[in-house]
Amino acid sequence: MRNILFSAAAVIAAVVLLGFTNTQPAAQDKPKDIVDTAAGAKDFSTLVAAVKAAGLVDALKGKGPFTVFAPTDAAFKALPAGTVEALLKPENKGKLTNILTYHVISGSVMAADVKTMKAKTLFGQEASIEAKDGKVTIDGANVVTTDIKCSNGVIHVIDKVILPKTIVEVAASNDSFSTLVAAVKAAGLVDTLNGGPFTVFAPTNAAFDKLPKGTVEELLKPENVDKLKAILTYHVVSGTVTSADVVKLKTAKTVNGKELKITVKDGTVMVDGAKVTTVDIPCLNGVIHIIDTVVIPSEK
Predict the structure, then answer these.
(1) I need a surface site. Which of 8, 170, 204, 279 has the fewest CB within 10 A?
(2) Do 129 and 118 meet the contact criterion of CB atoms below 8 Å apart?
(3) 167-291 placed in CATH 2.30.180.10
(4) What is the mean pLDDT of the chain?
(5) Residue 39 to residue 47: CA distance in whole angstroms
């Protein structure tokens, strides 16, 4: 009898223990991906809306890993009035994509690994990261929260939306374009080339040096501003035309109104006789292709 009671007690104890075990919380859920993590946070509603509008959801749900410097809703609100609304419009999808991918770096970079450096973003331009006195900034934006781990990377929260360089800013940051930048300023085209999107076939200083002696100096004079504008706008095509698209073209209509002749031979691209030496330099508002000769529109 005692053995029967002991066995029954053992069974009851096992059942109770099993029931207790089954009521315990499940093991901690696996981290969500970057998009779902942002969507589940209260401070990223604008960022999530922008990612959706740019068609980047699948990309940021991908294997990665990615490091995202994520601006808060307050960071987006700090932009000039109407900026966010304009960027979310379908016609500005390209520009929005450029901005968002400028906040993303390949790889999973934890706070402990961050140092003062230039970091290449998925957009293609480099962002400046500075680590000093225990604080980290990226292009002047403060990193306010770090190491939000996700299944495909990590999120660091920043207090400002960072913007890649425009066509003019990219040219101004490259010493090889000092003559071009001076010409753009003299022609009053800075604001124009900060619009777009545009594709610029950009002559280097060496290209300008190939012009007859004194030509550049004459063009930079105020009385020759119209001629200078005509030459510069002949180097600009509306829209973002990457090298993959350029090689398919025979001609390209410029902002000047006239057409550039494009030829491709043995892998070399020529634009009105100028050789394209470097392609696809990404800009916030388009793309730059470098050429070795200044192209001059006909006067016909």
Answers:
(1) 8
(2) yes
(3) yes
(4) 90
(5) 9
